[in-house]
Amino acid sequence: MNWSAAFKIAARELRGGLRGFRVFLACLALGVAAITAVGIVRESITAGLEREGASILGGDASIQLTYRFAEDFERDWMAENALATSEIVDFRSMAVFDAGEGAERALTQVKGVDGLYPLYGEVVLDPPRSLALALAGQDGVPGAVMDRVLADRLGLAARGIFRLGTQEFVLSGILEREPDSAQGGFGLGPRTIVRTEDLANSGLLAPGTLFETEYRLRLAEEFPLDIARAEAEQAFGPGIRWRDRRNGAPGVAVFVDRLGSFLVLVGLAGLAVGGVGVSAAVRSFLAEKTGVIATLKTLGAESPTIFASYFLQIGALSVLGILLGLALGVAAPLAFAPVIEARLPVPAAFAVHASALWEAALYGALSALIFTLWPLARTEEVRAATLFRDAVSTKFKLPRPFWLIVIALLLALLVLSAAILSGVPTLALWSAVGIGGAFVTLVLAALGVRSLARWLAKSQMLRGRTTARLALGAVGGPGGDAMSVVLSLGLGLSVLAAVGQIDRNLRNAIASDLPQVAPSYFMVDIQTDQLGGFMERLNTDDAVSRVETAPMLRGIITEINGRPARETAGDHWVLEGDRGITYSDLPTEQTVITEGEWWPEDYTGPAQISFAAEEAEEMGLSLGDRMTINVLGRDIEGEITSFRVVDFSTAGIGFVLSMNPSALAGAPHTHIATIYAEEAAEAPILRDLASAYPNITAIRVRDAIARVTDVLAGIAAAITYGALATLITGGVVLIGAAAAGERGRVYEAAILKTIGATRGAILANFTLRSAILGGAAGLWRSSPGPLQGGR
Questions:
Q1: Cβ 86 vs Cβ 58: under 8 Å
Q2: Global pTM?
């Protein structure tokens, strides 16, 4: 191969400009731009979370405890090591406002704070004032601030009096912004902030009730966080949760990363669609260069030299397309940064992030190589004489095996890169399988449409219908654009349809399952001495079909078989923070034991555990394994003696962990309950129970599911926008296909006019072709294809 000659040929050919490559550049640039924009937004949010880590967290470090306050020795450790410590109490409760004609009630997420809150950042109130002044209250009634949506829901005006439990508060301001709101993640109720000391007589922080305490620490700049964490875990024991400013909102960071990764995969589908246009543009370009290639070969140019010259040309154009895509992908999020930041619940540091650029460039380069090597490789297999005789050959021919192997290796590298860089390898691999299956199916569909069109064009049923026969003959004949149209439009519609089906299926499942399986209310913090009156009110109500109750504690799984739990079971969700624990002498009627046996009634021996079967399998647990659970600072070790089915999808009571009663004897706890009732009876039930037991918190399941649905709708909207970018790329491919065949259609139109065809008949002929191909792609999309069924 003569590289010098190849460079000279490529340079001279490129002087002709970009004619014939506009679609090539547009397809490549759009795909790269979509991936770049998603990457820039994702990295900007990550950078914002890192930059504002201390403000989001509320301190340089945070220590969370479950259902208890710090002991004296723990406070001493914090005083010795921290410059300042702020104590936060967080729990759910019912805010009650006596509106005259009746009480209004709403679920709220209560935050009890001390005089040092916030250590970082600023609480913004309406009207503007300091938080300390707002919480001071008036006329002996402690103050509170709450989200505007909660105040509006209760009909509570400024200086209005409302209750939390048995304690009255005066609304002193509307909470516009709290600096640490992003770390809280998904909440079931709007926020209310009060002084922790003002909750002393509310009845909401009794032993066994559900609350969390968090101690935010301001540390010296030079204090190593890893050393601080190790010392804290040694001083407090295993029942704490530590976070620091390096990852102030881990849940938000993981969510953003996962959503961004999924959108990148959607962008890769767009690149696949654009690849069809890239390949078609290269084929069209080489077809026009047939005479040049033939001349070069007759002058003695070797096939590798000719291949290298056109490879260099298309490589240079690919680099240009990638650079255009990177520029567009950077410009869009930076231009709309103020709008995006206003819609985000977390800070974002919008800038040009190198990691997003090189990832998008890598995907673009690999896609360009995969889709251009196939048509380029065919230049080696064509003889000069054949080129002269058959200037527009449409005969399908595979490249030689070497190039097929190279293309396969590049495809594997692209899939591997997506699996590694996305952080969700399983999803990436299945997405690759889906896109590959869609390509194969669409190719077969295009071949089938061409065969059917040829058959119909020759059939007797269309005798006398000249326009239809001409259109069908063109679709089924050689040199048509059926393959490009069906591939680009079909794949774009498939991605869009798959996203739409995910959204609709989620909504339909929620809407259809709620009336049959979901309870009306989920009640927490029921004291043991309140359980009798609670059940009496519900058992005498004909509108109540079922009530389930269970004692509940919270605990953290610290060890499995004497080893740290995470070393044994990995990062399973059951080990993320504390889990609900219940106890029971006998299994309920709904309990299905899959392995082992339940402990005998009145059993008082060593602690035994019944564990959720599905989660146990995921964690690699077996009967006889020993598990250590930290409950309120006390380690309880028990043996797993049974596995049972736990179905969390019913929104009813479900515990991963259940133990024999004697194992938890003496531990303060409350009860939870689910109430299944007619919708018309829900309001009276809530009114009666909240009036009789102000400490009980009621979570209306319909409202909780509605909030989840809203979150899912936002996610679906983001994914839909990504899918629309794929469809736009498909549109560009269609335009390219139409442009590539323009010369042929002009020639055909001239022939038809010569033999007497009218302008309307010619236009109808061309329109019918497009309708046939578009209908074929749409019909395939509406069936359960590889991107729609299964996983």
A1: yes
A2: 0.66
